[in-house]
Design goal:
The chain has helices at 2-28, 81-95, 103-144, 148-183, and strands at residues 38-43, 46-50, 62-66, 71-73. It is of the alpha+beta class. A four-stranded antiparallel sheet has the order 1-2-3-4. β1 and β2 (46-50) form a beta hairpin.
């Protein structure tokens, strides 16, 4: 059993090192002085690189993502806010979620995770919406028979259930938006 576990760990490390090696080569191919490249915080296809610029000076570490089709570098100060936001979004999706594998595999895993969260969120929303509806019906019933104590009691419960349903609906909406963004990658 120990041998199998050690073998499994080694295979995982070799796969990660292979991705890191490919990412380094892809990044170096984009640099003015590839031999000066210094890497840090490597995680498969994501990391940071510092290399000499055309003046022969190190410009500071820049984040990168190796997509397999090319390398995306973190935007410079002079780049647009949209470019900065797009890079941050991609970085957050593929580099900070504990995902592993190639860019495409990470995007697919994130899509699956988002779809699962969306499914769970929809179920929660439906349950809370049903409780909200039931609470409103109870209030209407107690109002019709002038039972003010019960109206007050169930009013608070129904309000909480309805507010919770709205919160979950907002979360569901955010997950739908995230799913649509992921389709673009």
């Amino acid at each position: 059993m120990k041998k199998i576990l050690i073998l499994w760990l080694l295979v995982g490390l070799v796969g990660c090192n292979k991705l890191e090696s490919q990412a380094k080569k892809a990044v170096e191919s984009q640099l003015k002085d590839p031999d000066s490249a210094k890497f840090q915080n490597l995680d498969g296809i994501c990391g940071e690189v510092n290399a000499k610029n055309s003046f022969g000076a190190y410009g500071g570490f820049k984040k990168f993502i190796d997509t397999g089709d090319g390398v995306i570098f973190s935007p410079s100060l002079e780049d647009s806010a949209d470019d900065k936001a797009l890079f941050k979004e991609r970085w957050d999706i593929v580099c900070t979620n504990g995902l592993t594998g190639t860019y495409t595999e990470r995007i697919e895993q994130k899509k699956k995770d988002t779809e699962k969260a969306l499914e769970n969120s929809k179920k929660q929303r439906d349950i809370l919406a049903k409780k909200c509806d039931e609470g409103v019906r109870k209030i209407q019933h107690f109002e019709s028979i002038n039972d003010k104590k019960s109206v007050e009691k169930y009013g608070h419960i129904a309000q909480k259930d309805c507010n919770d349903a709205l919160d979950i609906a907002k979360k569901t909406q955010d997950l739908v938006y995230e799913s649509l963004r992921l389709i673009a990658y």
